[in-house]
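Appendix B.2, paired examples.
Example (i):
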Amino acid sequence: MGWFITDKEAEMSNKTWYVEATAHTNEVIATELPSENMHKGVLCQDCLKRDFWECDYRFVSKLVKNKAAGNLVFKVFYREGKYGPVKLWPFLYKKHRSLSQALKKGIVRKGSLAAQTG
């Protein structure tokens, strides 16, 4: 059973993951990944060249989980396929809104949830 891969795993395997890190985080990553995974001057979709650590999605997940505890500062980028452009991964920076914020912004309306459940 463990040898089946989910759609999400298949989608993630088509991506090459990169982490752009600052001083302390760079040192932490250097202890975890081999030096061959360091890439300098990678051209990104926004036409800027950046220095990255190439890693897999599991490593990205590990960094995200330890971000607060380890005072880690980094950005995650990805490339789809072998020759796609390198892009910032937007889901790491997604804002979570409270219900009151969603009401103020008009994302939800008062009573709309009660009408759906009622």
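Example (ii):
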Amino acid sequence: MEITQTNINEFYNLVQDQLSKITTKEGLDINNLVKNIMTNLDYLISSETYESQECRICYGRNNLEIKMWIFSLVCMSWTLMNLTNKVKDGHCYNIDHQHGDQNPRECFDGRKFHYSIYQKCIKFFYDSLAVIEKDLDKYRF
């Protein structure tokens, strides 16, 4: 599976769609969000299987490993797209700023703030990969 901008948009839109359906005045029920996303993963998971005849192992769309893989891509894609959109929009709730109540706000401080979060998020993703990769060093083929 190759990840494209189309995939990322599709993952983002899946979460946005679910958020619009379950967010109430009381806020977001994260358990309900996760359940709804997991329920809708099937159409995102390819029918590709990963099989080892020698070990008699086969992973397909119904295996937890594959579902969690796609779920993590959905979560990562939504997070990065959400932060990216907030950087582009200059997301800000302070209408006392020069931008007032215009939408998008195009707030310099909002852009700077969200970009700093975006950078931390990216760093955490890369750092996580580096830790896992290092752990696997002695098992490389």
